[in-house]
Amino acid sequence: MTQIAKNYADALYELAREAGAEQQVYEQLREVRELLEENPDYVVLLSAPNLPKEERLAVLDEAFSGRIHPYLLNLLKILCERGHIRELKDCAIQYRRRRNADLGILDAVAVTAVPMGETLREKLRQRLQGITGKQVDLEYRIDPAVLGGIRLEYDGKALDGTVKTRLAGIEKTLSETVI
Known about the structure:
alpha+beta, 8 helices, Glutaredoxin, about 180 residues, four-stranded mixed β-sheet, Peroxidase, domain 1, 2 domains
């Protein structure tokens, strides 16, 4: 994460917290981040140096004015003006960290080879809450390279129950026993 993203996210969080809008901004920031990830051409447009800055800002106004909190819209404009719109993903990550730290929520990531159903997601979140004794904000990622199973990452720890790791362990054991 860049210092630029950290600074912008921290400033946005402080403003939103003072206004009592940290949850609203959090949800909207997540939605805008997802929207831009799903539409990378939009990021290219907002980063295009050949498009005048005023036109890029007008595109943001047209898309988001009245639909998102003004603080978030202003952040998008600042990032766009300064050529840092690609930092939005890291801004969202840092904002989430600040929000969760203030609320005493543990950030965790579950990595699987295929998407998990909602019931399994909820069971996993509850189980992790039982283990840690904290409320858990669980993010889900798909990585086909894990082959199967699940890898949990939280609080600087990684619990790896993936097929890939198990196969690597078996391979290591076999290579050590062969004379």
